[in-house]
Write a structure and sequence with these properties.
Number of strands: 9
Number of domains: 2
Radius of gyration: 16 Å
Number of helices: 6
Distance between the termini: 23 Å
Strand content: 25-35%
Bound molecules: 5-O-phosphono-beta-D-ribofuranosylamine
Shape: globular
CATH topology of the largest domain: Rossmann fold
CATH class of the largest domain: Alpha Beta
CATH superfamily of the largest domain: Formyl transferase, N-terminal domain
Structural class: alpha/beta
Helix content: 25-40%
Amino acid sequence: MKKRIGVLLSGRGSNFEALAESVAAGRIPNAEIALVVSNRENAPGIEKARARGIEARVIPSKGLEREVYDKLVVAALREKSVDLVCLAGYMRLLSPYFVKTFPNRILNIHPSLLPAFPGLEPQRQALEHGAKFSGCTVHFVDENLDAGPIILQAVVPIEDRDTPETLAERILREEHRIYSEAVKLVLEGRCRIEGRRVLVAR
Ligand code: GRF
């Protein structure tokens, strides 16, 4: 049976598209994207999903308490029998309830070399700090922001002429590559978590 992926997003959806393409091309084998959920009505990622024939739902989060909202999302993911949840530009912290429902079954991508520069605008943070290298990180998700055990990272050198936008663009290319790779490794059961470390059987 194919493994079923649920993608949560809030915006553009380029990481979702990269995952969808990897699934279609067999780079993530024996898998399908069963559902895309956005907490924002106008997220372009929703249309991108529908254009691919993938079911996409808007579940607006505005005004709802974190756990109340998460129960709605979890119900939708359960209804679609999702095995793995991928956050892809999802601008919300998950409640402990959500995290416990999918133990070690939630991944996130963040455009910095964590634990450096968690949170908003990490590309700008890296530039302003004067870092010489940045990159991106795929990690398991816990209740804390950009904090769970790291599965894969890719390094992107920072150049003197970089702006947050040019750096973000180069990092994004690496994001699209390593997110698919990490999803494949997790779905194939090749990631073992020991404390904070993720040991990958290659
Ligand atoms: C990406 O840079 C991702 O790492 C971060 O938010 C951005 C989302 O971009 N969490 P997209 O919606 O996947 O294009």
